[in-house]
Specification:
By secondary structure, the chain is of the alpha/beta class. It contains five helices and five strands. The structure holds magnesium ion. Magnesium ion binds next to loops.
Length: about 120
């Protein structure tokens, strides 16, 4: 991965969002944060340095599936990692749908530092 790509983290749970950003910043990445898809799209319009997006799927306001479809339409070259713990029922189905709509990789919650960094590396393949 190119270290000059900023990473936008879209996640409604603040403690998870902070945890992800801390891991990334410790690795030298620049991070931006958004609490839902609407905030994420707003950040994208103003931050051309964003090269990678990590997005949760189940969020209030605008959820991740819709957000991924929108990002794919407007920003085809941005790499997307979808993360989800599922919520009601079947997390795998959400992650598969995310992939079908253009996520480059998926990761199930809960995950640790190593799994997150591995998933990011896979984005470049
Ligand atoms: Mg959520």
């Amino acid at each position: 991965m190119k270290r000059y790509d900023a990473i936008l983290v879209i996640e409604d749970e603040e403690d998870i969002r902070q945890m992800i950003c801390e891991i990334l910043e410790n690795e030298g990445y620049e991070t931006l944060q958004a609490a839902n898809g609407s905030e994420g799209m707003e950040a994208l319009q103003h931050s051309p340095e964003i090269g990678i997006i990590i997005t949760d799927l189940i969020m209030p306001e605008k959820e991740g599936i819709e957000t991924i479809a929108e990002i794919r339409k407007d920003f085809p070259r941005i790499r997307i990692l979808a993360i989800s713990g599922g919520g009601i029922g079947m997390p795998e189905n959400y992650l598969n749908l995310a992939r079908a709509l253009g996520a480059n990789a998926t990761l199930s919650k809960p995950f640790g530092r190593k799994e997150l960094l591995n998933a990011l590396e896979n984005l470049e393949r």
